[in-house]
């Protein structure tokens, strides 16, 4: 099929499509074992083995950095695991060669610059992995044999998130850190406090009147994760706003918890769950079995695993692991395996640990669910910033409880890497069990006379040449002012909930307004006449009047909503709020100079804003919008703290952080995450951290909850 005719007709047919098309509860995925990673020829000489080991170590280190530090892996977990297994096998077969190689054994470390380091009192180890039934059974048999008697194992879901250590002192949450390299991790206390399911205090008494022992100090081990529901919500929002889909809930969780902006963490609803512990003092209060830990953690009011099972034998362990695998699509948290642990803590001491994992536990990783289907076409989506995102159109196929008809292809490079061709039979997997992804091609079934997919060099919506995007592996339509797809997506974003929120102005109506030449920019929406709206399909007199009233009402939206609606690359709600606070009007922002931006915006964001402002059309739009925004005549409650910046640290006696943010913002103030010279007030509660010290050093007024409330009330 000629490419041009393929693209024509596909564009514009996308709106409203989301890939989890239909739920078919009874269907089972075609998880046939047709697909296997490219066969690796085992090295036949020590020399070849040495080379392969060095190459594997380098490659694994590369993927570790992407996974742990950037939270942006470029291969699937299954492909990564295959590399690890191959390396392990070679190192076992050729120990002398492995030891002699200069290329170091990859050390997993999630440390990011800019985070304070926290030493773990008890090392935070990883787990050895099992991939087959035989490996899992061998672990059970080995363990039982060594103990000389049957013993209980606990089977738990392996949550696919970011490992965390949370310290409670005398029942109070004081610190959270990542695993890091297992000995010391990054201090993520401020962001962890934003997680609503993390209790700030352990519960000392139970509803039945009994009391819980509260240790002087306990290191609780668990996982920070993004629930499946929250992941779906975020992606639906992004889809509606024309932003690329998030590929994996774990990467979102990892990226969010390491965000420099605690407000961003609060906006994405992360969760936490606890399943283990490190140091516990006094040791007499340390749980003696895994089951006892679960019961104790629950009594303390901590979020615990939804489900775990106690099993006495390898047979039952395997059955429990399989049963859990069947259920995984229904669990709240994404999981990628099951963990098998020795229940008895005293017995664990007989096994000890290696440098990276305890010898009394093992993680079984589920094979990703997979299906084979035919690639019927490529659709190119044009986003509001011009980004071209390819989507694969597939013959519908059942996979893990849903029917899949589309899969994201992320970018041009991915199509080239997979060498995807029209008509190919492709292997589809659920990355992170949620979003379908094409992981390979069955080249043995490739139709005759296919050609590699040539990514369009012209925008499918406006035929302008595409250009390479600067900081992402992607291409852009550069026709930012004329491309109908970009105009439509930007107007839909502007009218959306996170911007000025014009109810009743849907994508179809926007497309019609653009096609008829009535509207090209957000500012032109405000010049629309009732007669024009009445000519639109589906609109009558009454509905036209309603829409017109809605458009008029939106003039009074907060300034940051207008700024967010400009679709400046890298500027989302949090940055838009900062800009609104700093510049106070659209005119001033339009006239901003490089020196007007302070360091807390970040270099890349500042550059993106300046690049946007350098385009005359963009400035013209801002000035036109400035005319439709009513002259600042804000209600008095919203001006009380106008222009004042607040930073929060520690825990307040009655108000939650979210409530504080809401109150300050409602009064016209802004909450920032870092203390700088421009901070007006620091609100400090108990367990206040370095921010308080810094505020004292900079002579910034410090408020407690009472004083804050007084300030909010004063005129
Ligand atoms: Zn275009």
Strand order of the largest sheet: 1-15-14-13-16-17
> From the alpha-carbon coordinates, what is the Rg to the nearest angstrom?
28 Å
**If helices are DSSP runs of H or I spanning 4 or more residues, what is the number of helices?**
26
Query: Approximately how much helix is present in the residues?
Result: 25-40%
| Count of beta strands | 23
Number of domains: 6
| CATH-level-4 superfamily name of the largest domain | DNA ligase/mRNA capping enzyme
State the major sheet.
6 strands, antiparallel
Catalogue the ligands: zinc ion
Distance between the termini: 71 Å
The CATH architecture of the largest domain can be named as 2-Layer Sandwich
> Assembly type of the shown chains?
single chain
Shape: globular
- What is the CATH fold-level name of the largest domain? D-amino Acid Aminotransferase, Chain A, domain 1
SSE topology:
Layout lengths: L2 H5 L14 E2 L22 H24 L7 H17 L1 H6 L16 E3 L9 E2 L2 H15 L5 E7 L2 E8 L2 E7 L5 E3 L2 H4 L24 E10 L1 H13 L8 H9 L4 H6 L2 E12 L8 H10 L9 E3 L2 H14 L7 E8 L2 H4 L12 E5 L4 E13 L5 E12 L2 E7 L3 H7 L6 E7 L3 E7 L24 E3 L6 E3 L6 H11 L12 H9 L6 H4 L4 H5 L6 H13 L5 H6 L8 H11 L2 H5 L12 H11 L2 H13 L16 E5 L7 H10 L3 E3 L8 E4 L5 H8 L4 E2 L1 H9 L2
Parallel strand pairs: 3-12, 20-21, 20-22, 22-23
Antiparallel strand pairs: 1-15, 2-7, 4-10, 4-11, 5-6, 5-8, 8-9, 11-12, 13-14, 13-16, 14-15, 16-17, 18-19
Helix pairs in contact: 2-3, 5-11, 14-15
The site of zinc ion (ZN) has 10 residues, from helix 14.
């Amino acid at each position: 099929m000629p490419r041009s005719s393929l693209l024509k007709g596909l564009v514009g047919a996308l709106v409203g499509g989301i890939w989890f098309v239909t739920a078919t509860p009874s269907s089972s995925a075609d998880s046939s074992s047709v697909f296997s990673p490219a066969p690796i020829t085992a090295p036949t000489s020590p020399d070849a083995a040495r080379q392969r080991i060095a190459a594997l170590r380098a490659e694994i280190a590369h993927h570790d950095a992407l996974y742990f530090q950037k939270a942006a892996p470029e291969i699937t977990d299954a492909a990564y695991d295959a590399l690890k297994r191959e390396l392990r096998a070679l190192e076992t077969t050729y120990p002398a060669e492995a030891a002699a190689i200069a290329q170091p054994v990859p050390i997993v470390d999630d440390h990011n610059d800019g985070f304070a380091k926290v030493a773990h009192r008890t090392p935070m180890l990883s787990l050895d992995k099992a991939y087959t039934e035989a490996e899992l059974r061998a672990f059970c048999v080995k363990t039982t044999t060594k103990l000389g008697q049957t013993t209980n194992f606990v089977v738990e879901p392996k949550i696919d998130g970011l490992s965390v250590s949370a310290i409670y002192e005398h029942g109070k949450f004081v610190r959270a850190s990542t695993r890091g390299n297992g000995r010391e991790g990054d201090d993520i206390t401020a962001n962890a406090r934003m997680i609503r399911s993390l209790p700030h205090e352990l519960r000392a008494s139970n509803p039945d009147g009994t009391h819980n022992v509260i240790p002087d100090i306990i290191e609780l081990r668990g996982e920070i994760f993004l629930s499946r529901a929250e992941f779906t919500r975020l992606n639906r929002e992004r889809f509606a706003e024309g932003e690329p889909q998030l590929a994996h809930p774990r990467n979102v969780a990892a990226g969010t918890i390491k965000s420099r902006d605690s407000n961003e963490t609060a906006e994405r609803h992360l969760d936490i769950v606890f399943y283990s512990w490190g140091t516990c003092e006094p040791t007499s209060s340390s749980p003696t079995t895994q089951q006892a830990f679960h019961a104790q953690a629950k009594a303390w009011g901590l979020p615990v695993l939804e489900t775990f099972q106690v099993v006495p034998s390898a047979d039952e362990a395997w059955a429990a692991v399989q049963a859990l695998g069947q259920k995984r699509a229904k669990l709240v948290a994404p999981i990628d395996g099951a963990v098998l642990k020795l229940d008895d803590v005293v017995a664990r001491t007989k096994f000890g640990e290696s440098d990276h994992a305890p010898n009394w536990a093992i993680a079984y990783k589920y094979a990703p669910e997979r299906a084979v289907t035919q690639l019927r076409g490529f659709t190119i989506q044009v986003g509001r910033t011009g980004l071209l995102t390819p989507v694969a159109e597939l013959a519908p196929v059942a996979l893990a409880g849903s029917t899949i008809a589309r899969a994201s292809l992320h970018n041009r490079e991915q199509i080239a890497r997979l060498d995807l061709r029209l008509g190919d039979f492709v292997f589809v997997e659920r990355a992170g069990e949620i979003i379908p992804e094409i992981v390979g091609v069955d080249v043995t079934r490739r139709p005759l006379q296919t050609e590699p997919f040539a990514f369009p060099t012209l925008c499918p919506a406006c035929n302008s040449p595409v250009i390479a995007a600067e900081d992402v592996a992607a291409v852009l339509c550069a026709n930012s002012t004329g491309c109908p797809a970009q105009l439509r997506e930007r107007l839909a974003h502007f009218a959306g909930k996170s911007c000025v929120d014009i109810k009743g102005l849907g994508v179809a109506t926007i497309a019609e307004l653009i096609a008829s030449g009535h509207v090209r920019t957000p500012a032109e929406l405000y010049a629309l006449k009732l007669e024009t709206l009445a000519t639109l399909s589906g609109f009558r007199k009454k509905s036209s009047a309603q829409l017109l009233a809605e458009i008029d009402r939106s003039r009074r939206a907060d300034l940051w909503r207008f700024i967010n609606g400009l679709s400046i690359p890298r500027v989302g709600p949090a940055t838009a709020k900062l800009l609104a606070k700093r510049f106070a009007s659209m005119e001033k922002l339009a006239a901003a100079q490089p020196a007007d931006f302070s360091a807390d915006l970040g270099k890349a964001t500042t550059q993106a804003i300046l690049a946007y402002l350098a385009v005359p059309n963009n400035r013209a739009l801002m000035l036109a919008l400035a005319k439709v925004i009513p002259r600042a005549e804000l209600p008095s409650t919203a001006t009380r703290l106008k222009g004042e910046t607040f930073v929060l640290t520690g825990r307040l006696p009655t108000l939650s952080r979210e409530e504080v943010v809401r109150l300050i913002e409602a009064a016209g103030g802004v909450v920032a995450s870092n203390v700088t010279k421009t901070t007006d007030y620091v609100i400090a509660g108990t367990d206040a951290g370095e921010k308080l010290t810094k505020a004292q050093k900079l002579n910034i007024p410090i408020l407690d909850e009472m004083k804050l409330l007084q300030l909010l009330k004063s005129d």
